[in-house]
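Question (not urgent): is this output format expected?
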Amino acid sequence: MSEENLNGAAAGAAAQPDGQTGPSFTVEKIYTKDVSFEVPGAPAVFSEQAQPQLQMNLSQNVQRVGDNAYEVVLGVTLNCTVNEKPAYLVEVKQAGVFGVSGFEAQQLDAMLGVHCPNILYPYARQLISSLIQTGGFAPFLLQPINFEALYAEGLRQRAARQEQGAQESLGDAETQGNA
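Got this back:
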């Protein structure tokens, strides 16, 4: 009798008592959607003797591309200056198509906002590191990012905006009632 190693794959797809299958998550495709690397001050920038200043910006875009398929695009922009002069600018949009089904709306939002960027970030990080080194600069490795904390902060900010909007609406209603 042979033993099969399923690595939990079949366990997640097992039918539940009500006949429904459980939540499912798959990585369908990972790809680089857009890349830009600029060294506007070359070759003079290579002779600068100061500590580089880095500014990093993250962005994320989610788009439904099928019944249970979502494209998640993680944008990473890294701007490096030396002596307040631009040294380089790297922009990478790392994308993936993920199959996601069987999750409640809040869980789906968290999967797309935390789990998918965690999968995409190492690819973006490697590409950025390679571009910087190939561009003639010292090797640079981006530090890990806590996407769960960023997601939680985003939720907190959304809730604060909704609360502020509700208070403004209430204030408008009171003003109209006093007129």
